[in-house]
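User: My notes are a mess, but here's the protein and guanosine-5'-triphosphate's SMILES. Can you give me a structure?
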Amino acid sequence: MAKLELIRNFCIIAHIDHGKSTLADRLLELTGTVAARDLQEQLLDGMDLERERGITIKSHPVRMHYKHEDGNTYELNLIDTPGHVDFAYEVSRSLGACEGAILLIDATQGVQAQTVANVNLAIRQNLKIIPVINKIDLPASNLPLCYEQMEEILALPREEALSVSGKTGEGVPELLRAVIERIPHPVLLDERGASALIFDSNYDAYRGVVNYVRVKNGSFKRGTKIRLFNNGIESEVKEVGFFGPEMRADEELAAGSVGYLIPNLKSPADTKMGDTITDIKDPCDKPLPGFKEVRPMVFSGIYPIDTADYEQLKASMAKLQLNDAAFMYQAETSAALGFGFRCGFLGLLHMEIIQERLRREYNMDIIATYPSVIYHVYMKSGEMIQVDNPVFMPDPSGIERIEEPIIDCHIMIPTEYIGDVMNLVMSKRGICTNTNSIDANHVIITARLPMHEILIDFHDKLKSITRGYGSMDYEPAGYQAGKLVKMDILVNGEPVDAFSSIVHVDMAYSRGRQLAERLRDVIPPQMFTIAIQAAVGGKVIARESIKQLRKNVLAKCYGGDISRKRKLLEKQKEGKKRMKLIGQVNIPQEAFVAVLKNSDVN
Ligand SMILES: Nc1nc2c(ncn2[C@@H]2O[C@H](COP(=O)(O)OP(=O)(O)OP(=O)(O)O)[C@@H](O)[C@H]2O)c(=O)[nH]1
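Assistant: No problem, the inputs look usable. Here's the predicted complex:
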């Protein structure tokens, strides 16, 4: 049999928590890729952050070898993908490297919002879908409901469904067989010339830029002279190989395969996800169909706590961006925070993850500002200004109108929660445009909401209202005018630009009061009394004050234990380092986070 016929490239797609990583573990075990004793739980979730949160953030390719009943050994390239709405772009990129997809549905939850979104992505890429009902070991599993939803919502025939338990391994051998039998093997392109699609990249401290590629035509070896289509940069291949699951160098990476390629590039910025790599000696004429450019929707400033870390933060961001195409950054300055970066993210979870990664993987001590969407500000002069940072909101006297981004949100919930969810949507300035029953007990509510309103806690609220059974997905739906104003926060009479936000007029009072109260609680008493004020257009709408106090950390230290005293003083010094001196007031890092969290009113 030809080599290509012995290859299967596939991914696992599912709603969050439906068990992709657990199933991937079973596949690794069953194919002997990783011995059971070496198998840490959710092996492919390599980042600490992923293990801790129990979610997959990055796609992870891995190559397995499997001996089928027909006597042949197949090369299976599996790409594990994340499920959260913010990471849909990771999913679509991974799909471009595959011919098939295992679609997992949790037997106790049924079809959820992301299941639908992922199936649509897979269909658009012409992938063969194998529907798989997972977690059948659980007593609460409801197979008849899953079959019905599969047919009704996804239009997939129930006869095609397999049922498995990623936990016990039941049904997994049958699934491997189905992968071989149902997913088509890769085929060569009609076009001439070698081509490989970059579907992901990473920056390795020792080897530099590592591109994750799917070779479509031709082959790549060490020493192959290559060209990147996007920017024409030429380079030489330093190493090729595959993930088993750790990086293993190989002789060549041939058409049909998934693996990694290390080009001899200095800067992480030289490669771009979705780009095509070709062989200079055997060039292809045109690039492979790339990926839809992802555009960030949420913006926030990220600043080093210590200004001396600016250059290091910049270098860390460049590396992080290589690994995460949807993350954007550019330099900016803030009166309160100094030199830093304006960063763009796909959503709030994406933002949190990037901030955490900067802190943990790159050891950066950072402060992030209140997130914002991009506003279109139409001036009386006829000009339109895009504002992604409240600080740059022009003077209200020159503004004709402000438009904000709107999203169409699809919310899937058990019928009993319709009323509560509609109330939630209305409290966020949204309108429900449609309600569709999908079976006796479930509906999909379609709602139109300002993007800004779902930024902070909409998803959390939806989850708590529906006891975890609600799920949502959204897409941008253009812009709409709104009565929006800039709200400033003044600490000790000075506006702190990092706390500014753009709010709807009707919510300004409650939000201003809430912010002032929260800041009062997190900013420690200082040598003098401090006023905290919220103001709109120069008018103060809320005020709180922090009473003067001198914190004597040694007060509790009786006797003369000098080492204990020193420890306390050092601790206090550490505490100081984590503060930002604004005007004459030390504001702790927590204050910047506090203004973000649990905004009940907004
Ligand atoms: N009982 C049971 N639990 C399972 C099974 N598969 C996964 N789980 C559990 O379900 C939870 C989610 O599993 P993961 O494998 O992390 O899910 P995931 O789809 O990879 O999650 P994301 O990557 O964050 O989208 C974990 O607590 C697993 O232990 C199964 O077959 N049976």
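The chain has a mean pLDDT of 83.
User: Great, I'll file this with my notes.
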